[in-house]
Amino acid sequence: MEEGQGAPEELQSLARGLAVIKALAGSEEPQTLAQVAQAAGLNRAVTRRVLLTLVEVGYVLARGREFSLRPRVLELGEAYRSSLRVPSLAAPSMARLVQVTGQSCSMAVLDGADIVYVQRIPGRRIIDAVLHVGTRLPAHATAMGRVLLAALGEEELAAALEDSDLGALTERTITDRAALVAELARVREQGYCLIDQEFERGLTTLGAPVRDARGDVVAAINLPLSSYTLGGNGVPAEFVDALLRTAEEISGAVARHEPTSRRR
To answer: Which of 255, 214, 186, 210 is nearest to 105 (CA)?
Structure first.
């Protein structure tokens, strides 16, 4: 059975493309169509179509009857390595925010309908010890999650919401899909998110996006505050400003460390 058989066509195509790239990467010498097909576990007709597509988009070089990878394929690995650098690049700016506000600061990325914590600088509260790197939380009810969801395209957002049950964590949690989409549009427009006791009673949280050199949102950071301490006065503007400045600092650091080939 060919790799990817039984999956939707677009997933089959992706699986075949990756199989061909892996087959070419496994040889130090250019390979013929027959050699690639055998190494990838695909028939010749499929392998030929995949190779021609990869040639067209610039990942494979064709010389006569032989094929080899082009340097552009390194961008695929670089994208992953860049994503791993973001938490470490963010740590100094996050630590300064914690020092100024006395609150904890976390960073998360989106994984389906959840966010996953990838960096955390604890504050001085006992509760700060509860959450840690690797923690998963529902995206729809968290400030960082809404920032990340708001950055998705229409189809990506629909897929993410399809995977989420939009469960209520408190009586304030938005669970209606249309209402959530409207809220995400507001978050996108204002450039940050404020959630008031939707994830947990007594917890108000700010979230802001972290962008790469191209302006794409690659992560989000937050600043959790006590709703009881804030009272009815709302979140002070200085907290919002501090979080947004920190997000901008981190975005700048990410952009400076990105390869020139990935910048616009």
So the answer is: 210
Candidates 28, 71, 22; CA nearest to 47 is 22
Q: What single-letter DSSP state applies at residue 49?
A: H
Average pLDDT over residues 29-39: 94
Residue 117 · residue 134 · CB < 8 Å: yes
Neighbours of 136 (CB within 10 A): 13
- Closest among 152, 221, 160 to 193, alpha carbons compared: 221
Angle, in degrees to the nearest 10, between helices 237-256 and 74-101: 150
Residue 210, pLDDT above cutoff 50: yes
Token pair in block for residue 33: 């169509």
Strand-pair partners of 220 = 108, 209
Position 121 pLDDT exceeds 80: yes
Residues ≥6 apart with Cβ < 8 Å to 4: 11, 12, 13, 14, 15, 16, 19
Q: What residues contact residue 99 under an 8 Å CB cut-off, 6+ apart?
A: none
